[in-house]
Amino acid sequence: MTPANAFETHVGHFWGILNTRDYMRARFALADTVRRAGTLDGINEALDHLRDMMRLCRSDNMGLRDIIPSLMLQLDMDQECYDFIKWYQTEGQRGDYDWDNMDLPFFNIKGANVLEDVGYLDRKWGGVQHLSAVMLLKLKLLIDIINIKLARKVTTARLPPELWKRIELYVSYQTITGVQQKLELHVKLLARTIQNLNEHFVSTLLDADEYLYGPPESYSAGSFEEMLLLLHSSYAAWWQHEGVLELLQSAKSIPAKDSEEEIEGMMDTFTFRNNPGSDRSKEELLDDVSRNRLWGYFSDAVEDAMSLSETRPSEVKRLEAKAAWEAEEAEERDFMDDDYESDSD
Fold first, then answer.
1. Is residue 178 part of a domain?
2. Per the domain annotation, does 336 fall within a domain?
3. Per the confidence metrics, is the pTM higher than 0.70?
4. Contact 298/184 with Cβ under 8 angstroms?
5. How far is it, in rounded angstroms, from Cα 65 to Cα 32?
6. Residue 314 belongs to some domain of the structure
7. What's the total number of domains in the chain?
8. Where is this region: Disordered (predicted)?
9. What domain range is 299 assigned to?
10. Between the CA atoms of 221, 227, 231 and 233, what dihedral angle is there, to the nearest 10 degrees?
11. Do residues 294 and 251 touch, judged by C-beta distance below 8 A?
C-alpha cells in the first residue's frame, strides 16, 4: 500500500515501496529522453531528475549513480563530479553504512583533491563507470594543460618580453609540467584498472560508432554488454570534450607505425597460428596490437599534441630508433663477415 504522503514520509526509501516503482521508472524514462536530446537544457533537466530520484531512493536500486557523473562532466561540473564519485567510492563502499538511516551524511564530500592519488579506485570490484568518468575528467584537465602550453609557445614569440614575464608570474611553467606528469600517470593507472575490470573498454570507446545502436537489455560485470551500456550513458561526454578522443586515437596510431613491420612476423609464428584469432587479417591484427599498446605510448601522444613542429616528436623518435637498429644490424653483419674471413684465413 502506498503511503498517503510518501514524498514527505518515505523520502529515501521509495524503491522499498512497490507502488512507487512505476513512478520511478516513468521519471527515469523522462530523464533519459531529455538527456538523449543532447541540449544544454535537456542535460540539466536530466541531472536534476536523477539527483532528486537518488534523494527519494538513497540505496539507488536503479543504478542512477552510474549515469550522473557523465552528465556533470557534460555541464563542466568537474569538481561536483569528482566529489560525487569520491563519496561513492569511499563512504559508499563502507560495509557498515546504513542506507536506511536518513540522518547519516549523504554526498557530503566537497572540494576533494582532483589531483590526489587514484589508488583508492583500484579495487577488484570497482565500477568501470566511475573509473572511466574520473579518467575523462583527468583527460579534460590534461587537454587544458596542453592548450596552455601551446598558447605559451605561440605567445612567447609574439608578445613583448616584459609582458610575457608578467604573465609568467601568475602561470608557473614548472608547476603546470608537474601537474601534467601527474595526470598522465593517473590516466595510465586508471587505464590499467579499467582494463582489468573490462577488456572491451578501449575497443568500444574508440570505435563507438559501431556500437551506439542502443543499450543492452542486461549485462554482467566485465562483459561487452557492460561497455555498450557505458557508451549509451556517457559517450556524449567523451565526444563533447574536444581533444580527448583525438589524443587517445593519436596514442593508438603511434604503436601502429612502430608495429607495422613486425606484424607479418607475428602472423608466421606457431603461437599465432595455433590460437584463437588466427583468422585475423594483417590490418585487423595491427589494429589489435596498436590498441593493446596504446597506453605505453600515451605520453608520446601528449608530447605530440604539444608540438608545433611539422614532424611529430614521436615520429622523430621512431625514425631515430629505426636508424639505430639498422646501424646495429649492419655492425653485427660486418662483425660476422670479419669473423668469417678470419676463420677462412
1. no
2. yes
3. yes
4. yes
5. 14
6. yes
7. 2
8. 326-345
9. 243-345
10. -10
11. yes
- The answer to whether 301 and 247 are in contact (CB under 8 A) is yes
Q: How many CB atoms lie within 10 A of CB 163?
A: 11
Task: Indicate whether 197 belongs to any domain.
Answer: no
Q: Describe the crossing of helices 128-158 and 173-197 by its angle, rounded to 10 degrees.
A: 150
- What b-and-e string marks burial along 61-90, b requiring 16 or more CB atoms within 10 Å of the CB? ebebbbbbbbbbbbbebbebbbbbbbbbbe
pLDDT digit string (tens) for the chain, length 345 residues:
677 788 888 899 999 888 899 999 999 999 999 999 999 999 999 999 999 999 999 999 999 999 999 999 999 999 999 999 999 999 999 999 999 999 999 999 999 999 999 999 987 777 899 999 999 999 999 999 999 888 877 776 666 766 666 656 555 666 888 999 999 999 999 999 999 999 999 999 999 999 988 889 899 999 999 999 999 999 999 999 999 999 999 999 999 888 887 887 787 787 877 888 778 888 888 888 899 999 999 999 999 999 998 899 999 988 888 888 778 877 777 666 655 555 555
Cell 554482467 belongs to 220
Amino acid 124 reads K
